[in-house]
């Protein structure tokens, strides 16, 4: 894997860890009435997205190889044109996910429990978090990473299709890698679920293709949010039926 891809992954880990350790945990979480687990994820996601937005601005103004906000499409009209493709993907994805997810849950191949009490307020807060974190992740993994890779690799490929394929694969690897938990010092893997990585990779490929075709933030945000919301609802059903 190219060095700058590895650096991007480490940058996202280090920045999130630093934000969580020195800002979110001591100064935000203790002063909220929301469940500690939920609030930690929520505010860490917000700070991470702000950091990614800052990177976009800095790169746009300070680097020759610069991804720019001008290359993003924030018009809702572009999102509406993509809605049919998003809806079809979500339906097909969830049919496959529910079928294999149910089989995997019955075989105890993954943990479908939640780290907080399933009260109405917690469920609503976690659902809202899933919708919010979808947009926050898209700012970094699609809007920042894909635009940057296009700039970095523009001269490496003679055909645009090859460039697009390489960028989609690389951005998906970064997206999947961020769903592996590990400690840097000392190095230790704390979370690694192959089935989760498979799901994330399929989603990352679709979101990468969608973003390249539309450059629409709202399109990838909506697709990611729909999937996260549907998966959350499915896991709630599993908890009620299999627990």
From TrEMBL:
GO terms for molecular function: endopeptidase activity. The keyword Transmembrane applies. Coiled coil: none annotated. This is CAAX prenyl protease 2/Lysostaphin resistance protein A-like domain-containing protein. InterPro entries: Rce1/LyrA-like_dom (IPR003675). Residues 122-229 form the CAAX prenyl protease 2/Lysostaphin resistance protein A-like domain. One of its GO terms (biological process) is CAAX-box protein maturation. It comes from the Bacteria. It comes from Paenibacillus wynnii. The keyword Transmembrane applies. Keywords: Membrane, Transmembrane, Transmembrane helix.
């Amino acid at each position: 894997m190219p060095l700058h891809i590895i650096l991007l992954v480490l940058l996202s880990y280090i920045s999130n860890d630093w934000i969580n350790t020195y800002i979110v945990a001591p100064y935000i979480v203790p002063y909220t009435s929301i469940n500690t687990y939920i609030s930690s994820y929520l505010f860490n996601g917000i700070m991470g997205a702000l950091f990614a937005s800052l990177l976009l601005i800095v790169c746009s103004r300070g680097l020759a190889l610069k991804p720019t906000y001008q290359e993003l499409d924030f018009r809702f009209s572009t999102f509406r044109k993509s809605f049919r493709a998003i809806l079809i993907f979500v339906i097909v994805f969830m049919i496959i996910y529910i079928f294999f997810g149910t089989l995997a849950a019955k075989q105890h191949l993954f943990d479908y429990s939640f780290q907080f009490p399933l009260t109405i307020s917690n469920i609503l807060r976690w659902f809202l978090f899933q919708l919010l974190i979808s947009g926050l992740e898209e700012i970094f993994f699609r809007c920042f990473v894909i635009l940057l890779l296009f700039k970095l690799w523009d001269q490496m490929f003679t055909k645009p299709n090859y460039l697009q394929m390489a960028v989609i694969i690389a951005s998906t690897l970064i997206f999947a890698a961020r769903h592996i938990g590990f400690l840097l010092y000392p190095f230790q893997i704390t979370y690694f679920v192959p089935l989760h990585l498979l799901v994330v990779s399929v989603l990352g490929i679709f979101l990468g293709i969608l973003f390249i075709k539309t450059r629409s933030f709202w399109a990838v945000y909506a697709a990611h949010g729909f999937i996260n919301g549907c998966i959350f609802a499915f896991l709630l059903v599993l908890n009620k039926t299999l627990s």
